[in-house]
Amino acid sequence: METQEKSVPQTKTPIIDRQQLLAHWQGHRSLTRRVIGLFPDDKLFSFRIGGMRPFGAIIQELLAIAGPGVVGLATNEWNNLDENLAGLDTKEKLLSAWDETTERINEWWPRVPEERFQERITAFGQYEDVGYCTLLYFIDNEIHHRGQGYVYLRYLGVAPPNFWER
Question: Which segments are annotated as binding site?
Fold first, then answer.
């Protein structure tokens, strides 16, 4: 018996559109912001487990990636990654910088050309991939580091927010 293959019509409809992708990213950012807010002030820049960095330093890394990253995606101009964000030494300053970065993402997102997501780029002089993979790296990196924050909070006796409440 001969099997006839069915032709599947090709469509250009994406699984997720750019606004949904932005909402997904911002949902993760909102959850990370809540984790920062729950962190005890006196532990944010000093507490560490097993050689991991303090959560405040981790947040500085995320800030160094997200804002400059969306500008890089929009312009394809990339500076080297600089995680030394001077002056962000309190929870209030980190939260303020987080909120400013959220606005920066919202401002620059519409400027990212659609074709950039399929172009091969080198972000921050070190991460080479296509644009959408670079953006997914930004998101995945945040999720990974937020997980470290969850471990810290649980160790300190603080219940973290549910990870699905984005």
Answer: 145
pLDDT digits (tens, 9 = 90+) for 18-72: 999 999 999 999 999 999 999 999 999 999 999 999 999 999 999 999 999 999 9
Label residue 35 exposed, middle or buried (CB < 10 Å: 0-12, 13-18, 19+): buried
pTM to 2 decimal places:
0.89
Which distant-in-sequence residues (6+ apart) come within 8 Å of 141 by Cβ? 62, 65
Q: Does domain 38-155 have CATH number 1.20.120.450?
A: yes
Q: Annotated binding site for a divalent metal cation: which residue ranges?
A: 145
Q: What's the CA gap between 107 and 126, in Å, rounded?
A: 25
| Helix, strand, coil content of the chain in percent (nearest 5) | 55, 5, 40
Q: Where are the domains of the chain?
A: 38-155
Helix 18-38 and helix 131-155, axial crossing angle in degrees, nearest 10: 20
